[in-house]
Amino acid sequence: MQRAVEFRTGVQAPAEIVWEVVSDFASWKDWNPVHPRMEGEMRIGTPLRFDLVVVENGAPVAVEAVVQDWVPYEQLHWRTKRLKGFVTAIRYLEIEKMSDVGSTFSNGELFMGPLVRFVPRDERRRLKAAFTRMGEAVKARAEALWSERQSSPT
């Protein structure tokens, strides 16, 4: 059984700019309302340590995950376990190039395992709200960077 929570948004910036925002873990503290701390390397099988703020202005919770997959300029996936390992959660950040100056950013979580039905609906609603905040923050950051670069003399 699987369940998913996702937010997608169009971004008026190239996919490369969105990737720059997503892949620069050190800058997440400056713009990311959901994961204000992200530490680790983008290498399959390596640990990531980050803070998770599910409820807006809520207290951050420290989380450890493992990089499941990543493709430069396209996606980053990490894995956590829940409910004593009976539920695997795959958190994903994905970028789709729509044109030379436009892209789509998706972020969400896929829950899999025999106890998926015990991931509460209220938790999924809070996650949806959090992923919406993060998606809008990625969009704002990428569009601001793109706008700055377009107005800068070359």
Assigned CATH class: Alpha Beta
**CATH T-level fold name:** Alpha-D-Glucose-1,6-Bisphosphate, Chain A, domain 4
Q: Output the strand order for the largest sheet.
A: 1-7-6-5-4-3-2
Overall SS class: alpha+beta
Rg estimate, integer Å: 16 Å
Strand percentage lies at: 35-45%
CATH architectural category: 2-Layer Sandwich
Topology as a string of helices (H) and strands (E): EHHEEEEEEH
Total number of strands = 7
- What are the low-pLDDT stretches, counting only 5+ consecutive residues below 50? none
**Average of the residue pLDDT scores:** 93
Termini separation: 52 Å
> Rough shape?
globular
Count helical runs: 3
What portion of residues is helical? 25-40%
Structural domain count: 1
Name the CATH superfamily assignment.
START domain
Main β-sheet, in a few words? 7 strands, antiparallel
Describe this structure in words.
With 154 residues, the protein is α+β, with helices and mostly antiparallel strands. It has a single domain (2-151), classed as START domain (Alpha-D-Glucose-1,6-Bisphosphate, Chain A, domain 4, 2-Layer Sandwich), CATH 3.30.530.20. It has 3 helices and 7 strands; from the N terminus they run E-H-H-E-E-E-E-E-E-H. The protein has helices at residues 15-23, 28-31, 121-151, and strands at residues 2-11, 38-40, 47-52, 61-71, 75-82, 87-99, 102-112. It has a 7-stranded antiparallel sheet with strand order 1-7-6-5-4-3-2. A hairpin with a 4-residue loop joins strand 5 and strand 6 (87-99). Helix 1 packs across helix 3. The model has no long low-confidence stretch (mean pLDDT 93).
